[in-house]
C-alpha cells in the first residue's frame, strides 16, 4: 500500500517540477564535454544532496534556476522528496544526449522505496539549467510486444519532423500499406514531458493506438512533446498549455493534411487525459477537423483533480493518517488560492507546484463549453476504473453535451486511465505492469473514424 502512495507522489513530482524549475536557455550553445566529465558533474550534484550540502548544490544552478529555487526552497523540496521516497542510497545507469545544443544527462537514482531517472541539462558554462525526475525507463533490452490486434504487415512507419522554427519535434507516421487516401488522426498527450508513445513504465498506449488504427487503414501521427524535447528552454513564468500543447497540435494537424496518403478533409484529433481536456479547444482553433475523440478527458479544472487523486490513494489502506491529512490540507489551500486568484501569475502555487499563471490559464479553458461550439462529431470514451479522471468527469461530458446529437459516449467498466483492463480498484502500481489498450477500444475507434470517412 505504501508503494501506491509513493507512486502517486512520483507522478506529481514528474508533472510539477517540470513546470516550475526550468531555466530559459534560449541563445546559448553548449561546449562539448566528454561523457566522463558529465558523469562526474552529475555525481557531484548528487553527492551534495546526499551530504545535505545544499549551498554547494544550488551553486551548480544557473542564475535563472537559482533565482527560482534558492537554497532554502531547494532544501525544503529535497527533504519532501526523500521523506516520501526514502533516502537516495545509490545510482546506476548513466546516459547522455544533446537537445537544442545542450548536454543532457540521465542517471538512474535508487531511493529506498522507488527508482527514478534524474535528468539534468548543462549549459555552456557547465551550470545546471534544468532538472527533473522521470519514471525509470524500461530495462535495457526491454522489447515491446504488439497486441494481437496489430497487423504489422498492413502498415509501415516513417520518421518525421515538424513544428515551429526553433521548436521542431520528431515523430512518427504510421501509414497503411495500401493505396490511399486514408483518414488520419493526430494523438495529443496527457500531462508531463511525454514521448511519442506516451510511455508509462512498460506501457506504450500511443504506440498501441497508432499500430492498432494503422492496421485498420488509418494514418496516425504521434510525436514527442515539446516539454520532453525542449524542457530546458521553456520559460516557466510564461508557460501555458498554448505553448505546451496547443501550438504543436495545430501544426501537427496541418502537417498531416499535407501527406500524400491522407485525405485532408478526413483528419481527426484524439486527446488523452489533459490532451482530452484540450482537444475541443484545439479543434475550435483549427476549425477544420473531421471529428474529435476524448480519451479520459477531465471536465473539472486540472488543479481540482490533484486533491481528489491524493485522497483516493491515501484512502487505499483504509485510513488517512495525520501526515497525509496535513498534505491534503496544503493542496486544498493551493487550490483555493488558484480559485480565488490570490496569487500573482509569477508566484508558485503552494501545494500544487507550478506558477499560478499556468493554472489560471488552464482554469479558463472549459472543455464542455468548447465542445458545445463544435459542429463536428465527438466520441468521448472513459474507463470505469480510472481514478485520475473519474466517472464524475464522464458525467460532466454527458450532462453538458446532452443536447448534442453528434456526440457518442462509451464507458468501459473494466479499464483504467490507460484503457488497460484490470480488476478491483485501480492503483498506480498497475502502470508498472505491462499491458495494452483493450482491443474493444481500438475496434470502436476505428469503426467510428471509418464510418465518418466514407
Notes on the structure:
With 454 residues, the chain is of the alpha/beta class. The protein folds into two domains: 2-135, Nuclear Transport Factor 2, Chain: A; 152-303 and 348-451, Alpha/Beta hydrolase fold, catalytic domain (Rossmann fold, 3-Layer(aba) Sandwich). 38% of the residues lie in helices and 21% in strands. The protein contains 15 helices and twelve strands. It has helices spanning 2-20, 35-50, 54-59, 63-68, 71-85, 205-214, 226-229, 241-257, 274-286, 302-314, 322-339, 356-363, 367-372, 391-400, 439-451; strands spanning 88-99, 102-111, 115-122, 128-135, 155-162, 169-176, 182-188, 219-223, 262-272, 291-295, 378-383, 407-412. The strands form two sheets. The protein has an eight-stranded mixed beta sheet, sandwiched between helices. A four-stranded antiparallel beta sheet has the order 1-2-3-4. It is globular and about 65 Å long. Residues 1-30 have low confidence and may be disordered.
